[in-house]
Every structure is written in structure tokens, then in C-alpha cells.
Amino acid sequence: MPRFSSEGIEIKRIPWSSAAWWFILLVSVNYLFTVSWSGNNWKRIVDSDGQGYYAYLPAVFVQHDLQYKFGEEMLCKYRGICGTNLGRAWCNRVDSFYVNKYYAGVAVALAPFYLPAYGLSDWLDYDHDGYSLLYQCSVSVGALFYLMLGLCCLRRLMKRFEIREAAQAIVLLTLFFGTNLFYYTLNESSMSHVFSFGFICAFLLTAHRMIETCTAKRMLLFSFLFAMIILIRPVNGLIILALPFLAGSWENMKTLFPGLWKNKTALMFSVLVFCAVLFIQLLLYYFQCGKWFVYSYTNEKLVFAEPHFFDILFSWRKGLFIYTPVLLVMLGGLFTLRREPFRAASFLLFFLVLTYVLSCWWMWFYGGSYGMRAFIEFFPLFAILLGLLLQKLRDHKRVYFSMLTVFILLPLIYINLVQTWQSYKAILPYDKITKEKYWHVFLETGKQFEFIYPPDGHVWFKSPVNTVVKEYANDFETKDKWIFSQSVVAGQQSASGKHAVRLDKKFHNSPALSDTLRRLLPDSLIPGTCVRVKLKAWMDENDNDAQIIIQQFTPNGNTYGWTTSFLVHITDKEKTWVPLSLDAPLFVPQTPGDIFSVYIMKQDNSLLYIDDMEVEFLK
User: Considering the entire predicted model, what is its pTM?
Assistant: First the structure.
């Protein structure tokens, strides 16, 4: 920033690490406004496991219901998922009561951001139900706060390791843009990982200071941070095993314990703070089911006899080093610790114990996710290793090795950013990824690759009935059928007759069967009816974005029925005529004038021919 003096304006240089910190903040804020909060995307901020982590806040402050009966209503209201009994999917039954299986730490961490949303929602005329716009956006703001807090603490910790500014900046940028920390901060903000990350970074900084000088203030802060880490996710308590790595030697570790015992009053209050924070969870258990302690995960547990050590690190399904390869470069920092064997051995022992414990979870792949998310909160330790590596290369004036390291990091960061987008757009499956699936969509971002690999395979809707009660066919030989399009051409490609639909860089939509449902089908036949679209397609290349679209909407344009499938999801055959079909349920009309429409849409410049379309109503 400019600084005025008697000699004019003096420009004060911004530290590299500070510039990196601000750059990450600006990118994140821009992403929130342009992606996470755009349109109706904000309705998905509280999602997946995050529904359980967050639910304590509306249950206590708005709904006054720790049996979470409101869950079904909110899921229907904001996500359109109704009548599924998924409103309490994150709860388990204890006796006759529902208990939230997730721990309360995220809700406690979010409270300072939730309460302003609570106060402003009424004033700004938003629904005061705990899930409207301001409430859900407060989760994103909270997640971003703990990210930036964590990065700030990590900067200070790296300074204590005597890592220079430029190296710190590279570490911060690599950590955020090169790992799934980006994804779980901005795309799935309600998950626990970024909150754990923030508290663990603060904990590591406090612990390093306390090893140096054990004061009462540091003891109290250490106790509070460690309790919050456990309250968010108990397995995160393993971070205590990283203290020897921070200390760097057994002599430094030994100085910690006398300092703790020297100030017995501070130690006593530290224990009280630790217990008080954890008591929040016990109190919530009591109010939910009348018991002070329950194991809320019931049958979900660690199975120490069945570790998946290799799978959790190297499998195509969720391997840590497969989906976050920058960590392999970070581990290169261990080679800089050849003269600090205690610190190197401490890190390796910590990493082995951590990996073993995490791999023993009954669902070692941790459900639907991008990459191996269970390690995210422990990335600060890897970041320190990267900082040490970059610093060592600079100290030894190995410029070429420093440049080589950065050039290796850049493509790995690019791969992570692409895969982050792929996960957000469902190009990269959230589970059951194989080597073949991974490489088929590697670095692909086209719309035609979205949802190409559902985790359970191509399980399309299939009509339970097959009796055709009404049929509309179009061989495109005449212009008086359906809503005509100039895409109908003659004498080029056709499956039958002389005409077919040609979709290319000029024409993007086929003729459409589009009319009111009442004209297409008698009212008496609508309940329980399904639709089957059949056609023949000829594709010049199998990476086009052509879709079959089955749509129902009201006269004012409000769509309530939408089924679509990319043609390339059904077949990958090129330059030959292929018969395709798609089934869909027929929704009950909302108004007498509701419209039903079927057509093919393609937005890219590839060449596609369509012929012999049929729309069958099955009863």
C-alpha cells in the first residue's frame, strides 16, 4: 500500500504470501457469487453429510425441534425432493428417538455466521425457517472464513520454520488450488473438512508456540482448539500425534511437560475449557434422547482388523495420491530433513498411524466425494514439507531444481482444478470410479460427459408397463407432422425414405412433438402412464452433446417434468444408424393447459442425423 512521507509517496511492497492469501480470497469470493450463489445453486449449499452437521442450528434456534421433523419439509421446499423419507437420513434411531449421528462442532463453528442470518432474515423478508437464502449463504461465508483463518495461521507457522515469503506463497497457492480443499470449501461448504482445516492450522501454530514458551494464554487456547477439533470430528484428535514433528527433537518435547505442570491454575482451567466444549455434545445427546452419551453412528465403525491401506492411498476409486498428486511432491520435503531424523521419523510415524486408522473405517472410501476427503484437515503438515523443500532448494541455490519443482506443480494444479469442475458437473463420478472410467473422462469438460457414469451404472428409468395406448410417429417424409424444423433435409443420410433430421453447427433442434397433454392423451389415461421415445441416430463422432428431451410445463413456462439423456450415454457407435430409446414417467398435469414436448437438442458443431422418431404412451 502507498505510504506518504515528506519526500513524496513511498510504495510499500506487499509480501508474496500476503498477496497469495488475498488472491485466494478474491478468487473464492468471485466463485461464491458466480457459481455457488448463482441462480438456485444456493439451495444445495447445505447438502449431503452437511445436512446433519448444520441441522443443530435450525433445530435449536428456529424449529425448536431436536427430533428434526422439519427435515422432510425443508428438503421438499428447497430441493424438490418430496415424500422420500430422506428428511432425517442423517439420523439414527436410539430407542424410540432420532439422534443426529454427526457431531456438533461444525454447528458451533458456524454459529457466529448463522446468528446474523437469523437476525436479518425477518428484516429482509426471507423465510425464517433456517434454510432460506441468507441461512445457506452464511454457511459458505463461514467456510470461507475458516479457510482464510487456516491459511493465515499456516503462513505464520511457516515463518516460524524460517520458510521465506516466495516459498510460502507457492505453498498457499498449491495447497488451495492443487488439492480438494478448494472443492470442499466452495462446492460442499457444509461438510466438516474446511472447518477442521481452520482449527487444525490454528492448533498447530499454537502448539508450536507453546513448545517454545508455555504460557497460560497459550495453554487455554491450545485446550479450546483441541476440543473443537474433536467436537467437529473425533478422529481429528489424531493431530495430537503431530506434536513431535512440530517440536523437531525429543529435547524440545521434554521442555513442554514441565511448562504444563509449572502453571497448575492455567492447567486446571485448560482442562475445564476442554471439558466444557465437549460437554456441548453430551448436552445435545441428552436433549435428543434422554441419555448423556450414545454412539450415534450405531453400526458404522472402525474395523481395525480390516485396513484398506493401499486402497486409501492408491486406488482409482478414491486413492489419496491418485486424486491429489501434489501431495507426492510435498512429501519430497522429507528429503530436506536428513539432518533432522527425529522430525522426519515423527512425520512418517504420524502419517502411517493416520493412514491406518482412516483406512479402517467401515466405508474406507468415505462415500460419495471428490478424492480422499478424510485427509484434507491434515494437509497443513504436507504444506510445511513443501515449504521446507522449496526453502532448501533456494538455500542451496539450486535454481533449476526450484524451477523444475514449480513446473511439476503447475500441471498437477491444473489437473486438480479440472477435476474439481468435473466433480461439480458430475463428469467425474462421485463413487465407483475405475481406471477405465477415470481415463475416459480425463480432463474432459464437455456437457456431453455430464452424468456419463452414474455410480451404480447406467440404471435408466424403465417403464413398468408396456401396453401402447397412444403413439405418435414421424419419419420426416412430410412437413405436416409435429412442429416443423428446417433441419429436415433430403438426399444425404436417412434410415428410411429420403428425409432425415440433420443437426449441425447451423441447426440445433429437431422437429418437436409438442401439444397440450389433453390433446395428446385423454385425461382418463394420464395417471400411471409412462412415455417411451424411440428413434434412430447417426453420429459423425461420439463426443457430441445431443440430448433427448422429454418435458412437461405449464402454459406460463414453469417446467415440472424433465427427463433427458445424452445420446452418447446410450451408445458410442459412430457413422452408422443405431436405434435408441428412452423411458420416462408421465407427471400428473398441474393445470388443464399443460404442455408435453419431446425433441432432440444439440448445441455443439458436430454432425448428427435423426430419423424415424416415435413417442409411445404406455399404460
Answer: 0.82
